[in-house]
Design brief:
alpha/beta, twelve-stranded mixed β-sheet, 11 helices, 15% strand
């Protein structure tokens, strides 16, 4: 038994040492890569701004991404909650650095594959590329920085292991969406899910997200999106609450939302405090996303139900009866099944997030999740 134990130790000692070395090198290497990502974002936005202003970029034909006759549906008065959108998850993430790949490879070895080394192969194209491919729903994770009262927000998955990002400056990310919208004024509404993170290893000046920072985030969103922002008040119009609006089965018509952007606040530690600002949510810039146990609340508009199998069980009550919109997930990177994909597509979810969206670099035979062909939006069935 002792010899067997020693054999085990000596067998995995090199992998353990390799993991420790890789772990130690991740942070400095990530900071170096982050500097490059920041420069890339700034240069990309400047280049896009120049291209748009010169008229060099042709607008996208929304009819080509819709499964059906978009013009007929708009004319018939299709409502926002009657659409299904394909969405991306971690919509900002760029390829992992070498040190992170080495760390996950070592972790995979010492955990017998429980930690998949393929996890680091995930990355997203830029927001502009995704928009051009037909994606109209994103998810951005944010970290909060407070430098002597000057508050800013950055997009990244982790401030230590996964800092690679094409959207480091959140304000510039909103500008990128707004510029694309300006160039495509009749686009279908875009939804952006914001998930505030609470880092366990904060960088200098990084803070835990609280209600004051949520108010600051509202201000940043309003400042950068301006009239493009479609708020909870815009959706509710004369109704006193989302509950009253839903009871009347009167979500806004999509034709009245063309060219607009909705910001959704992912359920987080301060969700209830955010709602407390104004229970009607009419004063807020973001739609607070709730969970399935909250479907009877007047403030409920869009809920999270990431397990499509569970959603299928409550689909009739939540979507058909209560007229609540739902976000689900069809997969997780490296964890793909045809069954889960079909459940997600049949669940009625208005936002179906995937880590395998249509892309500019798809090759024949690549796994991709759509509503058929290249369709990324459809009328809910």
């Amino acid at each position: 038994m002792i010899n067997k134990s020693f054999g085990y130790i000596f067998r995995f000692l090199p992998a353990l040492i390799s993991t420790v070395i890789a772990f130690a090198s991740v942070f400095p290497s990530s900071l170096e890569r982050l500097d490059a990502d920041i420069d890339e974002q700034i240069n990309r936005i400047a280049s896009l701004e120049s291209a748009y202003s010169s008229g060099a970029v042709a607008p996208i034909d929304e009819k080509t991404i819709f499964a059906g006759d978009l013009e007929a549906e708009l004319e018939a008065g299709i409502k926002f909650n009657e659409l299904n959108f394909m969405a991306t998850h971690n919509s900002y993430q760029t390829p992992s650095i070498g040190a992170t790949k080495k760390m996950y490879k070592s972790l995979s070895q010492i955990t017998f594959g429980l930690v998949s080394e393929k996890k680091v192969d995930f990355w997203s194209e830029t927001l502009t590329q995704q928009l051009n491919c037909g994606l109209r729903s994103f998810e951005l994770d944010i970290e909060t920085f407070d430098r002597d009262g000057e508050i800013s927000f950055t997009c990244m998955h982790s401030p230590y292991f996964e800092m690679a990002t094409s959207c480091y400056d959140f304000s510039l990310a909103l500008k990128e969406i707004a510029m694309w919208s300006d160039n495509n004024p009749d686009h279908l509404p875009i939804t952006v899910i914001i998930e505030p993170k609470s880092s366990f290893l904060p960088l200098k000046d990084m803070k835990y997200f609280n209600i004051d920072y949520a108010k600051a985030l509202d201000a940043v969103i309003r400042e950068n999106l301006g009239e493009k922002l479609f708020t909870p008040a815009d959706m509710q119009r004369g109704y006193s609450s989302f509950g009253e609006m839903r009871a009347a089965d009167d979500w806004c018509r999509v034709k009245d939302m063309l060219g607009k952007v909705l910001i959704l606040l992912h359920d987080c530690d301060i969700t209830e405090e955010y709602i407390e600002i104004d229970h009607s949510v009419k004063s807020q810039a973001m739609f607070p996303m709730l969970r399935e146990e909250d479907i009877d609340r007047d403030c409920a508009s869009i809920i999270l139900c990431n397990d499509p199998e569970s959603l299928l069980e409550i689909k009739e009550e939540v979507i058909s009866e209560k007229k609540i919109m739902v976000r689900t997930r069809s997969d997780k990177f490296t964890s793909v099944t045809d069954e889960r994909r079909e459940q997600a597509l049949a669940s009625g979810a208005n936002i179906v997030s995937t880590d395998y969206p249509v892309r500019t670099d798809l090759k024949p035979g690549d796994y991709v999740v759509t509503f058929g062909g290249n369709s990324t939006v459809r009328k809910a069935s």
